[in-house]
Amino acid sequence: MTIERRLARAEFTLNRDYPVPLERVWEAFADEEQKLRWFGGGETVEHGEWAFDFRVGGRDVDEGTFHGGPVSRYEATYTDIVEHVRIVTTYDMWLDGVHMSTSVASFEFELIEEGARFTHAEHGVFFDQFWADGPNREEGSRGLLDALGNYLA
């Protein structure tokens, strides 16, 4: 089987207002125990490798098998962290061992009257058979922000 070699790009920005203190939203990213509670896919994933190193230059790894489905692997490197302001990462995704994408993602935290505004902006490059996966990435990111909201509630 020949794989068509191609690239596609996708960008999106998602905003969520959470009715909790900004520090609480920040800690959901910065504290390993808290991040495990909302980021790891919940009951739909059999968890595999996990690594958490929240510092500039540090790496996170989250690997899991979707029940009845593929193995997903996320590897991120923190490139910028300003406490309570922003987190910037570059990250790669694999599906069943095939490198599917590389992305730059920024997470911004803003104090608002009602609590905290969170902004996730991302630019991804998708490889070969995953070239059309941009909309799925955005949908997956929406799901993560929903999971974060549920955790914070």
The low-confidence parts are none
SSE string, helices as H and strands as E: EHHEEEEEEH
Describe the largest sheet: 7 strands, antiparallel
Q: Which superfamily, in CATH terms, is the homologous superfamily?
A: START domain
The percent range for strand residues is over 45%
The chain-level mean pLDDT equals: 91
CATH class: Alpha Beta
Features:
153 residues, alpha+beta, Alpha-D-Glucose-1,6-Bisphosphate, Chain A, domain 4, seven-stranded antiparallel beta sheet, 50% strand
Structure commentary:
There is one protein chain. The protein has a single domain (7-152), classed as 2-Layer Sandwich (Alpha-D-Glucose-1,6-Bisphosphate, Chain A, domain 4). Strands 1-7-6-5-4-3-2 form a 7-stranded antiparallel β-sheet, covered by helices on one side. By secondary structure, it is α+β, with helices and mostly antiparallel strands. The mean pLDDT is 91. It contains 3 helices and 7 strands. The longest helix has 19 residues, at 134-152. The protein has helices spanning 22-30, 32-39, 134-152, and strands spanning 7-18, 45-51, 59-66, 71-82, 86-95, 98-112, 115-127. Helix 1 (22-30) packs across helix 2.
Question: How would you sum up this structure in a few lines?
Answer:
This protein has 153 residues and is of the alpha+beta class. It has helices at residues 22-30, 32-39, 134-152, and strands at residues 7-18, 45-51, 59-66, 71-82, 86-95, 98-112, 115-127. α1 packs across α2.
Secondary structure blueprint with pairings:
Blueprint: E1 7-18, H1 22-30, H2 32-39, E2 45-51, E3 59-66, E4 71-82, E5 86-95, E6 98-112, E7 115-127, H3 134-152
Antiparallel strand pairs: 1-7, 2-3, 3-4, 4-5, 5-6, 6-7
Helix pairs in contact: 1-2
